[in-house]
């Protein structure tokens, strides 16, 4: 005769359904990047060539091989981040080209009729890397220059070359750069 409790399993031990609800702490999760590098090195060992090109091919193949079962690990941030970073780079390149054309038109137009302003852009991101990246992307875009970040890191002050509507300018900067930066750094 056994002591069986339907809630706890045999002899008071946890049942199989309890094991399914146990959450793995973040420190115990598999570091997918390290595994990707190890697999890339394994690829180089298997092919017998340790060139940079062969390591890159091994890294891409390992990335694809690890992407297939990524849902088993529960978190696929590692696989989303490169695409988010590429999207941010594409957005920056587009804004760089568009704003360079706009600045060229403003400067070449007779009379220099534009209104510069200093705009206080409220920051949603509080991470140093996010704030730095946002400020640098703003400064690298022609027609805008980041001046300072407030002491409490809640506001970025930006000089704009031609501002018709300061509120629309703030929304545009946040939508164009800050939102994709936050997604890329998640």
UniProtKB/TrEMBL annotation:
Coiled-coil region list: none
Any Pfam family hit: MNHE
InterPro entries: Cation_antiport_E
Signal peptide (residue range): none
Residues spanning the membrane: 40-68, 88-108
Keyword Membrane appears in the UniProt entry: yes
Keywords, alphabetical: Cell membrane, Membrane, Transmembrane, Transmembrane helix
Keyword Glycosyltransferase set for record: no
Gene Ontology CC: plasma membrane
Intracellular or extracellular location(s): Cell membrane
UniProt name for this protein: Multisubunit sodium/proton antiporter, MrpE subunit
């Amino acid at each position: 005769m056994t002591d069986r409790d339907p809630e706890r399993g045999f002899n008071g031990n946890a049942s199989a359904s309890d094991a399914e609800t146990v959450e793995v702490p973040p420190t115990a999760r598999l570091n997918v990047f390290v595994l990707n590098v190890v697999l890339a090195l394994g690829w180089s060992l298997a092919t017998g060539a340790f060139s940079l090109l062969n390591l890159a091919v091994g890294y891409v193949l390992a990335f694809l091989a690890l992407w297939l079962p990524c849902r088993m690990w529960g978190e696929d941030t590692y696989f989303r981040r490169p695409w988010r970073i590429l999207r941010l780079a594409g957005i920056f390149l587009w804004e760089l080209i568009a704003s360079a054309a706009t600045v060229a038109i403003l400067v070449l137009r007779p009379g220099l009729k534009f209104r510069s302003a200093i705009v206080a852009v409220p920051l949603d991101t509080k991470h140093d890397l996010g704030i730095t990246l946002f400020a640098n992307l703003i400064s690298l875009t022609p027609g805008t220059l980041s001046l300072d970040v407030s002491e409490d890191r809640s506001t970025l002050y930006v000089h704009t070359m031609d501002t018709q509507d300061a509120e629309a300018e703030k929304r545009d900067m946040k939508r164009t750069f800050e939102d994709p930066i936050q997604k890329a750094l998640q």
